[in-house]
Amino acid sequence: TGTGSQKDRVVTEEEWLRKWEVGNIGFHKEEGHPLLRKYLDVLLNGRSGLRIFFPLCGKAVEMKWLADMGHSVVGVEVSEQALKEFFAEHSLPYCEEPVPEISGAKKLRSTSGNISLYCCSIYDLSSSIVGKFDGVWDRGALVAVNPCDRQRYVSLMITLMEKNSSYLLVTVSYDSNKHKGPPFYVPESEIKSLFG
After folding, report:
1. Is 132 in contact with 161 (CB distance < 8 Å)?
2. CATH code of the domain covering residue 189
3. Which residues are annotated as a binding site?
4. Which domain of life is it from (predicted)?
5. Assigned domain for 3 exists
6. Domain interval for residue 51
7. What is the pLDDT of residue 4?
8. Most buried pick, 12, 56, 91, 174, via CB within 10 A?
């Protein structure tokens, strides 16, 4: 599979924060991701008023798009700057609240109440804190997680999913010997073994 050159690579939380600070966010899509539009029916499956989770959300414009459709959106991101930029760029008023269960974490919630973004490590979350979700839009999360943390990440994601939830996953395919990541290359065989 050629993932050997990446398997030991670790990107620290500080490196991610620095990317936001210096504007090195080539992974952010101003217009939203075309694959979400294309496969929206798969995510929603004819249902309305869903709870949709955005792992490692950054300032994804799709969060507002789905909230405007009547869904409840929850995201998690280590960069408070990214979350504040999200609210500012959409002119959305919000309030900040501490998250008592997670030391140092905060939740930025739109005053309309349908968008809640947690500023903390994704690994600090649990279903007892954020609840469970009808849908997950994983665009850039699994491929950003350090390879050594993939199993931990997927195990958490599975605990956050309702029984009949939909999980849309976007990955990247390339020669992993030529790029150290992130985004990391996750072969389809590994995705199948991770998610079962």
Report:
1. yes
2. 3.40.50.150
3. 16-27, 56, 77, 121-122, 139
4. Eukaryota
5. no
6. 13-22+32-195
7. 58
8. 56
Binding site, annotated residues for S-adenosyl-L-methionine: 16-27, 56, 77, 121-122, 139
Quick check: 95 and 126 in contact, CB under 8 A?
no
Does any domain span residue 8?
no
Instruction: Residue 191: name the closest of 165, 175, 166, 171 by CA.
Output: 171
- DSSP state letter for 185: P
CA angle 149, 78, 133 (to 5 degrees): 70
pLDDT digits (tens, 9 = 90+) for 153-170: 999 999 999 999 999 999
Residues of the chain with pLDDT under 70: 1-5
Position 123 in a domain: yes
- Reference 57, options 29, 37, 94, 91; nearest CA is 29
- What are the b/e assignments for 11-29, b being 16+ CB within 10 Å? eeeeebeebbeeeebeeeb
Distance, CA of 119 to CA of 81 (rounded, Å): 10
Distance CA 17, CA 25 (A): 10
Considering its fold, how many domains does the chain have in total?
1
Between the alpha carbon of residue 139 and those of residues 9, 63, 106, 116, the distances in Å are 20, 12, 23, 18
Helices 188-195 and 150-159 cross at an angle (nearest 10°) of: 50
Q: Answer yes or no: are the C-beta atoms of 77 and 105 closer than 8 Å.
A: no
